[in-house]
Design brief:
With 137 residues, this protein is α/β, with parallel strands linked by helices. Helix content is 37%, strand content 21%. The protein has helices at 22-32, 52-61, 67-72, 93-100, 121-136, and strands at 7-9, 16-17, 36-40, 46-51, 87-88, 105-109, 115-120.
Length: 137
């Protein structure tokens, strides 16, 4: 199996740059309706993921929170509760399956750690369903 068949390329995914402000991130989460997204640095390297929950915990712990403050606070300053693990493009199918048990998507990076896209759990399940439903179901 070639994992590239499961890859959603970077240009078709929603991700955030580490220099984005909390306000920008809140607006993007609200518009796109995602709950967890990849976070990349200014050069395109995968850093982590950030979730709505991470932002809400940050707001809760900073009681003086306001939109002006949100414009000046970068998301890279927010503590990440549960970062999604990324896999290298040369990973095995076994690694993809194991990680997709615990993550809705798997960020994929190249040999330099550059973010190149995601593999969605839905696509992994669909692939194996289509492959095995013809012969085993």
């Amino acid at each position: 199996m070639n994992i590239l068949t499961l890859l959603t390329p970077k240009d078709k995914t929603f991700y955030l740059n580490s220099d984005s402000s909390i306000r920008q991130v809140l607006e993007k989460f609200d518009y796109h309706k995602f709950t967890v997204v990849p976070l990349i640095d200014e050069e395109g390297r995968y850093l982590s993921t950030i979730s709505e929950g991470d932002i809400l915990r940050y707001i809760k712990n900073n009681c003086n929170f306001n939109l002006k403050y949100a414009e000046n606070t970068k998301i890279v300053d927010i503590e990440i509760y549960r970062a999604y693990k990324a896999l290298d493009i040369n990973c095995s199918v076994k690694e993809i399956i194991e990680l997709s048990l615990n993550q809705n998507f798997i960020p994929i990076v190249d040999d330099r750690g550059m973010y190149i896209g995601i593999i969605k759990r839905k696509d992994v399940i669909s692939y194996f369903y289509m492959k095995y439903s013809k012969t085993n179901i």
